[in-house]
Amino acid sequence: MDNKAALQESLGWIEEPKQPILCIPTGLSEASDVALFEEIVPGLLELPVSIVILGRGSKKCGEMVGSLVASSGHRVAVVADDDKNLRKLLAGSDMALFLSNVHDDAVATALHYGCVPIAPESYLTENYSPTQESGNAFTYEEATVWQCFASVVRALETFKFPYDWRTIQRHAIESMTRREELIEAK
Length: 186
Fold this sequence. Notes:
The protein is of the alpha/beta class. The chain is globular. The mean pLDDT is 91. Strands 3-2-1-4-5-6 form a 6-stranded parallel sheet, sandwiched between helices. It contains 7 helices and 6 strands, in the order H-E-H-E-H-E-H-E-H-E-E-H-H. It has helices spanning 3-10, 31-44, 59-72, 83-92, 104-113, 145-159, 162-185; strands at 21-24, 50-55, 76-80, 95-97, 116-120, 138-140.
């Protein structure tokens, strides 16, 4: 069973290989993440995407996400915050949403799994260029609702093209392999 199907099954969702899964692998622990998530979630729920959130954050945040899960059925889920679930989340998701630039280690882990980051610009990410067929992520300059949402929409539109999506995933994995080789060479 592939990782995406296993994730969908573990969440009690119908196996839908063509349904994009967007994860938030850092949870909503940073205040800036929570604020941006509250702004962007109505738009995300209008898009054809399932959302899985790592269960990390404040009690208030947990209540907000719990309410969202209850009202969204099989489109939003929360998984427990542990290493096993994080690996399963990244291996089974198509894309990972990062709402602030304080998560470089998590971005690196997502890239390692071929889970395409949607994130603020960083030294780990290269914005995908469809004309050059290059890049390993969908980036945005500032953590604003519109820039973040535009990057999510770009990712979802590109996901519709399996060849292009596999190319981005390959670039993601290769970028981490090159980085690891450089670190070992030092």
